[in-house]
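Problem 12. The chain below contains 523 residues. Write out its predicted structure in token notation.
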Amino acid sequence: MSHKQRLFTGTLVQQVRSSIRIQLIFAFACCVLVSVLVGFVTRPLFVTNERRLDFMEGIVSINESARELVKQFNDMNQDRNVLIIELGDKDPVFKSRFLNRSLPSNTGDEEWLTVPRDGNSQYRLTKSELILYLLNATKQTLPLHAFITDAEGNIRYKSAGVNETHVDLPHMMEDAQRPPDGHDKHPIVTRLYPLTLDGAKAYLLVQGVPQSTVVYVKEPGWAPFLLGLITFFLCFYLITKRKMREMEEIAYGVKEIEKGNLQYRIREKSKDELGSLAISINRMASELDQMIERERQAEKVKDELITNVSHDLRTPLTSIMGYMRLVKDRQYKNQAQLEEYVDIAYGKSEQLKKLIEDLFDFTRLHHEGDSLKKEKVSLNQMLRQLLEELDPIAKDNDVTFQKDFPPEPIKVEVDPNLMVRAFENVLTNAIKYSTHPGKILVKLVRHSDSVQMTVSNPCEAISMEEVNRLFDRFYRVDTSRTSSKSGAGLGLAITKSIVDLHQGSIDVEYEDHVIRLSIFLPL
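Solution.
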């Protein structure tokens, strides 16, 4: 097989596999072919000899007799003497009846015909007797009825046994023009010929039942047809059984999904429309399952949001109200203690303000997005300035910064305010959760199509589940919300939203008590 033939065969097989319509056409054609072959092969096994009556030979005999009678009447119109002599020579009855016949005493008005024969011998008969003889002569060989009518259908001459005096000529013409059927049970043959009689138009009608002969015809009967039909249905059932089972599995799968079993998956058995339907239903079930799971998670996050926000707002607010009540009730010993109470209340109010701002920023960035005001800035310079601002806080927490920046400036088009907020959240988070004393490594690397900023710091042991949840809103590694590490767990979630707005990505890794958080921004 050549390469083109293999390619054509492969394409044809692929089209058949991918279209159930073509498969059904092929199945139907194969079933028809098999059923025809079965009927043809089994046909000789069911042949029977059926006895029938064949009238064709009798019909031919009637036609020959009718044509012979027409010929005789035409001869009579041309030369009666010759016709009478021929009839006498052929038929002894005619000869004995009309040869040397004596004339009756009363001849009447009828025309008598006298034809000499061998000297003194003569045939004597009337014209009517000649016509009646010709009409009745056919009954000697075949059981026929012959008669002559005028143009209106009135019978002028008729053979013995005919009782009608008038016939319907148009009906007789229809019967005469009907083709003969040699297998009718009781056929009646009618033949009609126009004649000229006594100078007027007339019609010769010949009717009779043809004689039959017994013939035996080989007939296969209905058995091969029924066997072929049964074979067709059986083959079609067997060929389509697999497809029907696949359709039943799809229907069962749809019912299971309808019941709420969204984890049920339909087996994808084929590459045709049924296979595509199974894939679509499985995809729909998967998407519905994911959507319901997202809704469930959203409901859970909403509950956590209400709980966490309520707790994180209530804690500093309770402190503020407590110290303000002490001030209001003058529950302080001296001016120094008063100022201490005011400073504590002010610090708690700043913490409350920071929490509210974080919550507002996260909601705006996560749900509504933000219009970026991008500028071309140097990330080296931005990070240096930010590290200098955070250095006092780092020293208070007994940690130091270590910078690893390339000498050349890395300029990226970003929103400076939002990006500073993102970097600040990452760095303050590293300060807050670093082990003390500790060192925080801030590294900046330029790639071919992006820039990477990595913050690494030592930390306490955490699990991979905790690492994977670092960017969840309101999640804190220290689950005790009364811990000295203040915060609502929104910092890294806000950072991720800002990075996503810049078409970047953020990643976190943990290994041997060291956590590394990397931000990738496109160049």
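Discussion. The radius of gyration is 60 Å. Students who got a different answer should revisit the alignment rule from Section 12.3.
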